[in-house]
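Hey team,

Sharing the GOLD domain-containing protein run so nobody has to redo it. Sequence (198 residues) first:
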Amino acid sequence: MKIFLSIFIFISSILAHNVLLSPYGKQCFFENLKKDDELAISFQVGSRDPHQSEQYTIDFYIISPNGQQVTKKTNLDHGDEMIKASTSGKYLYCFSNEKSGKVDLDVSFNIHGVVYIDANDPKSDTLDYAIQKLSQLTTDVKAEQNYLVIRERTHRNTAESTNSRVKWWSVFQIIVVAANSIFQIYYLKRFFEVQSVV
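Structure output:
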């Protein structure tokens, strides 16, 4: 029973989310951390519209319990951020599209909570600890797969948009070449016509 309880607590500390960030909008979340706990956040920005091929960016920052910015990154299309809690309390992390009126952005992110464990603690060499590590590695693989799905969707949208542009550019070139050919035939025909003066 103790093993199942520890697995449940550990799995509940690892979450995957998907939020829609509106134009000029911001979404904030928080985690309660104890001193020396680690908070790792990985995220990917995309669009749910298959016709959008642009790579969108957002701002990301983390605020400590005393109101100071621990980290701030701007113009990111994806990222992996990790902090170590210097004090216990509520750590706020935000995804911001406040500087841009771009379309609704799809932000997929994963939270990895690593609870500090003292290496000298005799409990750190137990089966519970090994199960927690295995669970963490499994969840990391799942988070990486989610990240790759978003990346694949973004790159597919870009490739399809590029293919469409190449197709229409080719059609335009064919029309220009055909028009040029017709003009040259007409012009050369007139150039070689013999006109007699009566």
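The chain is about 40% helix and 30% strand.

Ping me if you want the raw files.
A.
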